[in-house]
Backbone:
């Protein structure tokens, strides 16, 4: 039994100065966590109980799915991370240290390398696969801006799983098993979430989804169709464009457009000087970039910006991507800043990438590749040929859902899980092969799957709290029942004690507020702040042989005879 | 259900080259752990199951004792450890690192500072105490010689508790509660252990005991009385000497003893030249040391060495202790190397420390403080006065038990737990005070208590293994029953599967060897190596509707009807 009289707990009435988000504010105020350093937190008894319940749910669901639990150190030698180049790639995000002999170590940010090497050490045949193994373990990332309390910390607990298969079909099955195990886990934890298509990005894999818990203060932005449920990371949002059905237009006309290096100035000149009625979306923006030091143009409608993060995520094979600088224009004198058009791409030495909206047959006003001149009737497929379509334009609320064509919204969320078809990158780098049926070595294909276990405490708090405090789903609350004894006499305390014992005998966990000196008001406020679902008040109603049972979520109250309390709560 | 056909496990027939002790050898061979770097290990599925069972027993016993679980980060800022001077004192044993901003951090080797600060942050009154809090957490020490597998690693898991009390009487009660909780824990884990008096030593506390698990390859040496059960760390062993009842002797006589700078040569000269019948124990050895750069002599009977570790542990207040060097003799010309005696201590500027055997009234042959001269009839209390008695002579098997005076033995063991009355050192350094009844601030007194949780896996393996493999107590075995199906037909596999399901339905954990390709011999050897207590063989006896149940510990075998298996194992 937990007793408020002896519990290591002091609730705070005021918000901590450094807390930006509700979960951080309330977890500190309710005495669940304490800050040790930037992005580094300690758990007090109530917080650790909730943390452990979440950890147990995660473990049970992984075990149920048939995944095997292992455990790696957090302190790891450099060599495996050098073999995959991540020792360098991680940059300053990696905590690095040396031991007394001067050997290099790191604090593991994620364990792909170690899992790959473990399987390589034990297994050697296709018969040993498929295999899915996991750990629940402390991870370290030296975040440039640790924030939001335990949501983005520098020391945190992750459940990371890895699957190992002989072929792509096997990987897909392992991936789906993890996907289902994640659904089961988050459902049990009482989290609302969307499964969001994500880019495989820098990890070099082929398929990836994120589990995002919607929350107004979340760090992640994603696209959601409220009608059909389509959800995607902004990077992974697919642009669906109806085939172009415009009128046929005449040949390109070049017009004098002095001092119109921007879309706004171009539109103004067309409408004011030429009496046209165009908007920015009738113009074509040609954004010049250097891709691995070769000039490329990315074409988007004039009313949209290029989203460099989206572009980079979708532009496979390009390592270094940056906007054109003055020096680049100087080196490429045919490219006239502010007046570039795609119609002379070959002559200009430009490779053309385009947003899907720049579709076959679409007609544009764009630069004429000469100072103070623009061209109209420039038609895609006739006057210029796209080398490669790439999702690169900014995504906006109101854009078409690629599934049902309704208007999507842009929503915020906390990432609580990520599932990922890694493919053969790590197995290749570290030499993980097995012999196939013919006795030939094949490189194993892998998946990696993560749940932020400590972060889930905050995500649940964000989604379930209200103005007066935390409000835990029963499965993860620090206890099942919070009993408050009030008054100056012994009787309510004695009755509360007996009810607590009776409930414990039935397997319920009880937090008993047996403090003699605290006022009833303080105790009620603490109970609301801590957020256990069932609150029993043992006080005034005792004169009628009754106690009050409050429901934290609905605020519903009922008076129940002392003799009926156990019956009422144990159903 | 665990299945050998899919388990991440490859047992090894050969001992790993780097394994010195049985637990290391067998835990690697049975696929429980794998080495990642010096003193850094990963847990494979079977090993992690056993580890987690031990962790759970420890947690349950701590909770039962009313201690509250909290959890600290492993990555800690430097400042608290500077306040207590441990940032410097730990020296190269501490893993140190810097974050991206250049701030200093350490990987926690133990958390006294953090616990002290946590309580300081929450509590302020004597009414809040006593308090005992604990964590089960990963610790880091950069051991100069990591060895014996997980027994002395650089990353390991400890349960560390800390108690907080207003006064010494409270500390004693908290200490005894921990002592009992440790007894309950180790008893449940099936460990044999002795509770051994230990020195508080460098930690600056007042009382300390170690839980030592006897084991021939253990790193710790301790004294044990098999008759009365007295047990002590060698440093803490108490020398009990009967009051000296020797004859009165005449005045000091100085004798010519050329070339006798050693005890051996002195005894030879006395017996051969003077016709005496003495042994080394009749002579007095005066060992000169510099204690904080002041010369001292430590007096022990001539047949014993000074044990510098014992001396240092018992010599409170001395920071720097070292043996005399030639340079020291040169600076103190009155001290004649090989011929020092205590009778002129004042004139020689020597402070005299002595082993309790150099008791009041005892008579000795010793140096005469002149080259080639010794003195006899030198009587303690008459001819020289001991400034301070100190436990300093080497301890030997056969020495008297201080309780019952039987001969003690010297035994080896693994330290599995340590309980410690810290006192006020940390609270003082970090300013942890509470207001007492009169409203005056008092410094809190603390205890610290540790159990090596990951080490316990190895300690249990050391104490329970036999020639053929591991041999787990039921409470910590990776499963309750190991079922081996043999043969080429489907039937034994089907029966084994059914038995496994029936046992699981009764709540037993089953490891099923369902491998079709492995021979019966390989399977039996694996079962013996893994060390689960109940092994069911489903094979030949099936012709009579029977299976064989083997007991791993006793090797007892019995044939049981398939229909009776569940009844036989679930009792």
Residues:
């Amino acid at each position: 039994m937990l007793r408020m009289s002896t519990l290591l707990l002091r609730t705070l009435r005021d918000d901590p100065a450094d807390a930006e988000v509700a979960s951080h504010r309330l977890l500190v105020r309710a005495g669940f966590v304490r800050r040790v350093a930037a992005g580094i937190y300690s758990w007090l008894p109530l917080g650790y109980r909730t943390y452990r319940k979440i950890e147990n749910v995660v473990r049970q669901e992984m075990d149920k799915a048939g995944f095997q639990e292992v455990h790696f150190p957090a302190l790891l030698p450099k060599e495996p991370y050098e073999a995959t180049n991540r020792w360098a790639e991680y940059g300053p995000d990696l905590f690095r240290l040396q031991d007394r002999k001067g050997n290099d170590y790191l604090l593991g940010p994620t364990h792909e390398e170690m899992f790959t090497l473990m399987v390589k050490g034990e297994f050697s045949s296709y018969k040993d696969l498929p295999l899915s193994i996991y750990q629940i373990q402390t991870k370290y990332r030296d975040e440039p801006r640790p924030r939001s309390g335990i949501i983005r910390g520098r020391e945190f607990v992750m459940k990371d799983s890895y699957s190992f298969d002989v072929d792509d079909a096997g990987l897909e099955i392992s991936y789906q098993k993890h996907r289902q195990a994640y659904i089961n886990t988050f459902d049990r934890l009482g989290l609302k979430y969307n499964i969001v298509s994500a880019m495989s990005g820098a990890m070099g894999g082929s398929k990836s989804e994120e589990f995002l818990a919607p929350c107004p203060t979340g760090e992640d932005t994603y696209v959601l169709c409220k009608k059909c449920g389509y959800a995607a990371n902004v990077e992974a949002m697919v642009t669906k464009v109806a085939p172009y059905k415009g009128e046929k237009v005449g040949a390109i006309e070049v017009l004098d457009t002095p001092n119109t290096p921007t879309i706004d100035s171009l539109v103004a000149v067309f409408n004011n000087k030429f009496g046209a009625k165009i908007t920015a979306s009738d113009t074509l923006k040609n954004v010049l970039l250097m891709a691995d030091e070769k000039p490329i143009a990315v074409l988007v409608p004039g009313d949209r910006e290029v989203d460099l993060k989206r572009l980079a995520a979708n532009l496979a094979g390009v390592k270094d991507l940056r906007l054109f600088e003055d020096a680049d224009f100087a080196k490429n004198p045919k490219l006239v800043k502010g007046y570039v058009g795609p119609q002379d791409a070959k002559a200009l030495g430009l490779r053309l990438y385009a947003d899907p909206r720049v579709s076959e047959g679409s007609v544009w006003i764009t630069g004429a590749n000469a100072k103070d001149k623009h061209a109209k009737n420039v038609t895609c497929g006739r006057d210029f040929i796209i080398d490669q379509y790439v999702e690169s334009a900014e995504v906006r609320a109101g854009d078409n859902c690629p599934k049902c064509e309704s208007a999507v919204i842009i929503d915020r969320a906390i990432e609580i899980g990520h599932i990922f078809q890694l493919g053969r990158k790590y197995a290749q780098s570290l030499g993980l092969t097995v012999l196939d049926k013919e006795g030939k070595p094949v490189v194993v294909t892998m998946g990696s799957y993560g749940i932020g276990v400590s972060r889930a405490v905050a995500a649940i708090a964000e989604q379930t709290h209200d103005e007066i405090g935390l409000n835990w789903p029963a499965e993860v609350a620090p206890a099942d029942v919070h009993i408050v004894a009030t008054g100056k006499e012994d009787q309510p305390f004695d009755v509360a004690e007996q009810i607590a014992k009776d409930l414990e005998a039935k397997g319920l966990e009880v937090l008993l507020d047996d403090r003699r000196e605290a006022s009833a008001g303080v105790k009620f406020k603490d109970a609301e702040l801590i957020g256990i679902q069932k609150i029993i008040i043992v006080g005034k109603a005792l004169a009628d042989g009754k106690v009050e049972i409050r429901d934290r979520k609905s605020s519903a109250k009922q008076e129940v005879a002392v003799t009926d309390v156990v019956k009422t709560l144990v159903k």
